[in-house]
Every structure is written in structure tokens, then in C-alpha cells.
């Protein structure tokens, strides 16, 4: 069979065009695979070589054959560069350029010297054999174990091409054949290998695509595993829903929050009962949107920062979560999943609730402190008024005589003033400015005396019980004020029964310093002092209180009684006295469930012995306790008759008293009181004038009595200046409220006594007689 050279050249040219287009398309489609681009350029170079051979076969000039040979050599080198690029090996472009330059010079020299077929064939075959050898080396470097079938086939094809080329060279040299005899067979052989190589390179592209796809799958699986591990270990809960409410994914945090099993994916979640931030269920019109998942389904929009409460199955505790949800759509825009995330904020809500309670306590404390400061100032001025009323009424009773009809009116004036004085004492107790005389006392004794007073006021259908633990420790308290607290609470209990039958119970017991029920402030004091606590409970089964009332019971001037039946200071006084003793109050009450007040106090040290408790006296009149806001405990008995109370005896030798007060009314009253009893009185309303009087005649005065709260210089400042002039002169300071700070400052100055101003009128002469300096011998 005779091979037609021009036909073979045309067939080769057509194959080169098809192969160039095919690899160009692959290079455009898969830019990450860099070999097809070089192979497309190699086919173009081969096409130019085939065109040169076709021109030479048609009788063209010899230069056509040289150009054809150079083009084919360039095609072989580009195929090798494409293989290295595919294998991701460095490209020796400089070496290839130098090789092509050398081949061009060699062909030019051959054309100038001789145009023999053998020499030309050697120049053509040498680059082909070198490129084949380099390709085999590269394949061995990448796949030394001959593991890849495509690489193995490429190796065999390269070896076959080299063998064919060497065989043709041997035939040309041995037989001396000429160009027209050798060229058709040569073109046919290499046309077949070219087609096989194109097929193998296309297989290499497919191999790379498969490997990349497998690597992408492994990478995706790895990322998915990492994502799942990340989601599983998140502290936030994550739940992925389908539109039919079934669950795709739920992580450990969500399981713990919802109280679900740790294994397996649940198909449906338990019923979610969301609550508003206030803890109330959402109204029915909002139910379709009460869950973030349903809201996303209904609106198709994300939901963010939604706070919901959740009741765990079989668990009474309420859990809170900050929720977010967003839709996940498929490529067509349809809803595929709803991703629901939430953060457990239960501890945050609890801390917020505790903070609100503390803020309420702080606001209450600040309110009490502000009102206490105001009360102290008001009490000072009011005491001056009451002192003037009581003193002048006393003087008027003496002036009019025992049988005068005015005695009854004067007695009523004094009684009204004393009631005002008791109100002042309540205000001072509320503001914690009433002096405390704390000493170790037995709480059982105070409770028994309080119950003895209450039994005279309760009706037969009301049962009064006391439960006293004999092991209860003593406590350090002002017995009078503690009795006032218990009597106020007992009277409130009587009012709570509303005339019905019922029971009131007083309970006294000891509480260990480490008991859980003990309030923090009392527990801390007990731990510091190394003592246990005392709990006194007053309970009734009366009408009780609702939440709103219970929140305001300690507010000053808040009362639920009818107008004129209460001032609203009773429980405020109770709170002030208890806190002044370092104690705390807990209240438990509900509508129609009764009320229970629990008072906690630090116990007294075991080294101290309880003192005797002064008798508790009701000042409400007629032997019955007054309403809770008006009940007081006092060591000062109310005169039972309008007779004049006994005064101190008139001194045999007149003593000179220096009295200082910025209130003209009191100055006038005190002068009259003391002068009527034989004292010589020098009264001043200006501090500097009083000091100048002492400086002028230090031995003239036997006692200085001064008010404490005066503008400019206080009574302590005056006492300090006077004692610097006359150290032996006794000094007394009168004040409407006496704090521990005032007492300590007075002791430091050298004041003989601090007189409680509400008692100053009735006991004034006794105080003067006790403190006045003895006359010189």
C-alpha cells in the first residue's frame, strides 16, 4: 500500500487543528490545570510544521523544510513544558529558549554547507529524543512507583516514539533512502502517536479533575466535621429545623438547656412555652409568633435578640434564653431550614433580679436616710415647741391652784403635748436618732411582757400563743424599744384579724450563725462576734397582704387604715429600731393567708449576763394598745391626774445657772422654771455673749446648760470654749436627738451630761440639782 505524502500532511494538519482547539477549550474551562494551554500551543506549532512539510512536498524551497523542522522541534519542547506544568514542576523556559536558538543556528549552518537527508534527520530527531528522556525523568520523579495507570501509558507511548524514531534513523542511514521514500512512513507513525498522546493528555486532565474533586470532597468532609465539632462544643444552643418542625441538628448546649437526652437527633422538640421578660405568658393574639421559629416561618425574615422564658420538662425552674433565628434558603429561593440559636441567660436574669432587689433596698435605705435626716431637723424644732407647751402648762397649773376649773384644760393641753412628744419619739426611732441603751437582755422576758399587755386588748375569740425555746441566747438591745417593736407587730396582728376569731403567736428561738435562713448582714455580724442569732417571730392568720401592699409596708406614712386611725409610721419605726440593733426583718404574707414577721438579731456574747428588763408600759391610754402606728414604749409614765408633778426641792443657797438657747420661748420658760425654784438664772440667746459672760466672771456660775443645735456655734463648741476659760464649771448639753457620735464628742469635750430634750422640761430641775456645782465653803 502506497502512502500519499500530501494526504498525510493534510490529515496531520486537521488533527493538529482539532487537538489545539480541544486543549484550548480545556485550558479555558479548567484554568487551575495549567498543562492544556501548553499542549494547545504545541498543536499550533505542529500545525506550522505540517504546513512547511506540505509546501516542501509540493516543490517548495528547501527553507520550508527547515522551518517545518524547527516548528516540530518547538512543538515537542512545548509538549514537555505542558507536562511539567501539569505536574506542577518548575518550567525551564530559559533552557528551552537557548535550545531553540541553537537548533536554528544548526539548521542555518546545515543549509549553508549541505542539505543532506541524514544530517537533517539527526537534527530533527535529537531534540525529540532529549524531550522524551526528560519527560520520562519527570514522570519518574512524580510517580516513582508506577502507581498511576495514565502515567504508565504515557511512559510506554514515549518509549514507543523513541524506538520508532531510532528505527527510522537506522533505516535511513543503512539503506540510503531519499526524502520521498522516508517521509510518508515517518508522518504516518508519528500521526498515530500524536493522536494517542492527545488521548492520554486528555486522560491526564480527567485524572486531575477526579483528584481535585476527591480532595474537595475530603476537604468539605473535614470542614463539615470541624463545623459540627465547633457547633457541638459551642456554649450557645443551636437547633436547625425543617419547615415541618422536624429537627435536623441540635447541639449539646441546646440538649442541656431543653433537658433532652444526649444521644441521637430528636425528631420533634417538646412544647415550647415562651414567656415575656416579665414572666407572663404571651396573650393569645400573639401566640402564632411566640416562638422565633414560627415567626421566621410566618414572615421569612430573621429574628434577633428575642428574650424568652422556657419551662423545662419535669423541672420547676424557669430558664431564660436570648434567641435568634434566620431562614436558610435553597438555590431556588425556597425555605430549606430555619437555624435557631440561643444563649442561656438564666444566671444573668437571676443576677438582674437580685440587682433590682438590691436597688430597691438601696432606694428604700436612701429614702429612709433622707426622711430620717429631715425628721431629725423637724424633731429639734418640734421639741422646742412641745417643751414650751409642757413647761408653761406646768407653770400655769401651779399659778391657778388645785381647785381651778382651768386645771382640766391645762391637763388636756399637757396630754396633747405628750402625745406629740411620743410622735416625735417615733420619728426619731424611725430616723435612728433616738438614743439606744443596749444591754444584754432575755428576749423571752420582753415577749412575755408584750403578751401580757396584748391580752388586755384582745377579745376572747383571739388566741395568743407563745413558743419560747429555753436554749435561746440573750441579745444586746434597748429593751424599751424592742418591746415597742413587738407591741407594734402584735397590734398590727390584732387589726389583721378584723374582729374575727383567730390566733396570734410569738415564737422565740436561737439560730446558728451558719444557718441558711439567716440574712447575710446578721450572719456576717454573728461570724465576726462568734455568736449565734436570735429569731423572734410574730405570726397571725388574719387577712394578710397582697404583693403591692407588702412592697410598701415599711414606707413612712404608708397605711391601709382609714383616715385618722393611723399615721403610717408603725412599721417604719419597727424597721428603724431593728436595723439600729443590727438586725433584719423578713416578711411572709399573702392575701387571706396571714402574715409572719421574722426578726433576726445577733446574740449577746456569752461573757455578758442579761440585765433586768424595765417594765413595759402602754401609752395608748385606757389599758389597750393603740393602733400599730401609735403604739410606743416609754419609761416615762403619763400622769394619771392633772395634779402638778413633784419638783426638786429649792436649794438653800441660790445657785447661779447660765442657760443658752437660740429659742426665745425656751429661754423665757427655763428662766421662769428655775427662778421659781430659787435659782439665779442668766439666760442668753447668743453664744458669744454667753462665753463673754463666763470670761468676765468665771466663778460666778455654778452650771452651764446649753442647747446643742444652734446656728453658728454648736453647744459643743460653746462647751469647749467655756471649759477652756473655767475648767471646773459643769456643762450640760440638751439635744432633741442623741447619737453615739454626739455622745462621744461630748465626752471628749468634758460635758457632764447630754440631756434628751424631750425629757428636759419635766426633769429639768432634777438635772440641774444633780449637776450644779456645790457652793464654796
UniProtKB/TrEMBL annotation:
PROSITE patterns: HIS_KIN, PAS, RESPONSE_REGULATORY. SUPFAM superfamilies: ATPase domain of HSP90 chaperone/DNA topoisomerase II/histidine kinase, CheY-like, Homodimeric domain of signal transducing histidine kinase, PYP-like sensor domain (PAS domain). The modification 4-aspartylphosphate is found at residue 707. Its EC number is 2.7.13.3. It catalyses: ATP + protein L-histidine = ADP + protein N-phospho-L-histidine. Residues 377-605 form the Histidine kinase domain. Residues 223-266 form the PAS domain. It comes from the Bacteria. This is histidine kinase. Keywords: Membrane, Phosphoprotein, Transmembrane, Transmembrane helix. Residues 656-772 form the Response regulatory domain. It holds the Pfam family HATPase_c. CDD domains: HisKA, REC. The chain crosses the membrane at residues 6-25, 37-57, 63-83, 95-113, 119-136, 156-179. The keyword Membrane applies. SMART domains: HATPase_c, HisKA, REC.
